[in-house]
């Protein structure tokens, strides 16, 4: 039976002259591939809809035993006004989209995570100063994946052990950690919601160091070594 499905575009690849295979993180059905038609009359419109992280709606009879789902009448559910014209916001969406696409498991279902990502895209679109958004959002992704950083009961901030996911006073016995100013700022960030994070002053080198560390953190905890190619693009935008 056809039903209205809401989802977030994570990846698309051309299958033929007029069809695309699109991976969509759906609110109730999780991450699934769909065949999307882009006929000659509405081809350019469909291409605009398939932009990364767009929140869309469509009709589909989703069958769990079907490898690629079919759909019809795909449309944008929440129009974005700034993300694809602002180079900073656009680079952030490209980065976060790549992180999600390369880390989210097939058929992964989490309606609370879907709601967070939907709200996060709208927050970014509306934000006045988005320079810290990717750090905040990446940490929240870690929270939903189940490995949010843990603070030390004694308030230690000297080191953050990336592999053990905890702050500590002594140097870890492996190379996967951050220290000093970087660790202290990460500790402070954990206490902030996005409105406060938006006002936090971080210099470029610190922001770059934290982002590199958090990407490594995600890779360690998901045992996923796939390169995040858009990371360098994001660094270039800020420098």
Q: What is the count of structural domains?
A: 2
CATH architecture of the largest domain: Up-down Bundle
Q: What can be said about the biggest beta sheet? A: 6 strands, mixed
First CA to last CA: what distance?
51 Å
SS summary, helix count: 8
Low-confidence stretches: none
- How much helix, percentage-wise, in residues? 40-55%
Strand residue content: 15-25%
**Name of the CATH class of the largest domain:** Mainly Alpha
- Mean pLDDT across all residues, rounded? 92
Quaternary structure annotation: single chain
Topology of this protein?
Elements: E1 3-16, E2 19-26, E3 30-37, H1 43-49, E4 55-60, E5 69-70, E6 72-76, H2 87-103, H3 111-126, H4 133-145, E7 159-161, E8 166-168, E9 177-179, H5 180-189, H6 194-198, H7 204-222, H8 230-238
Parallel strand pairs: 3-5
Antiparallel strand pairs: 1-2, 1-4, 2-3, 4-6, 7-8, 7-9
Helix pairs in contact: 2-4, 2-8, 3-4, 4-7
Detailed description of the structure:
With 239 residues, this protein is α+β, with helices and mostly antiparallel strands. It folds into 2 domains: 3-76, OB fold (Dihydrolipoamide Acetyltransferase, E2P), CATH 2.40.50; 87-238, de novo design (two linked rop proteins) (Up-down Bundle), CATH 1.20.1440. Helix content is 40%, strand content 22%. It has helices at residues 43-49, 87-103, 111-126, 133-145, 180-189, 194-198, 204-222, 230-238, and strands at residues 3-16, 19-26, 30-37, 55-60, 69-70, 72-76, 159-161, 166-168, 177-179. A hairpin with a 3-residue loop joins strand 2 and strand 3 (30-37).
């Amino acid at each position: 039976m056809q039903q209205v499905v809401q989802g977030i575009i994570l990846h698309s690849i051309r299958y033929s002259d007029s069809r695309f295979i699109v991976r969509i993180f759906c609110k109730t059905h999780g991450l699934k591939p769909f065949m999307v038609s882009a006929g000659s009359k509405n081809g350019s419109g469909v291409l605009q809809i398939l932009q990364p992280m767009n929140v869309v709606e469509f009709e589909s009879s989703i069958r769990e035993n079907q490898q690629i789902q079919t759909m019809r009448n795909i449309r944008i559910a929440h129009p974005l006004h700034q993300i694809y014209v602002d180079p900073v916001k656009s680079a952030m969406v490209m980065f976060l989209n790549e992180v999600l696409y390369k880390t989210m498991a097939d058929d992964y279902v989490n309606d609370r995570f879907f709601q967070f990502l939907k709200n996060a895209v709208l927050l970014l679109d509306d934000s006045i100063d988005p320079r810290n958004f990717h750090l905040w959002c990446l940490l929240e992704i870690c929270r939903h994946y189940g490995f949010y950083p843990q603070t030390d009961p004694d308030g230690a901030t000297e080191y953050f052990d990336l592999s053990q996911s905890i702050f500590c006073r002594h140097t870890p016995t492996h190379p996967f950690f951050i220290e000093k100013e970087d660790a202290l700022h990460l500790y402070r960030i954990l206490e902030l919601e996005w409105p406060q994070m938006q006002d936090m002053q971080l210099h470029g080198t610190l922001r770059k160091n934290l982002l590199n560390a958090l990407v490594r953190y995600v890779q360690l905890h998901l045992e996923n070594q796939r390169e995040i190619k858009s990371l360098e693009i994001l660094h270039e935008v800020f420098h």
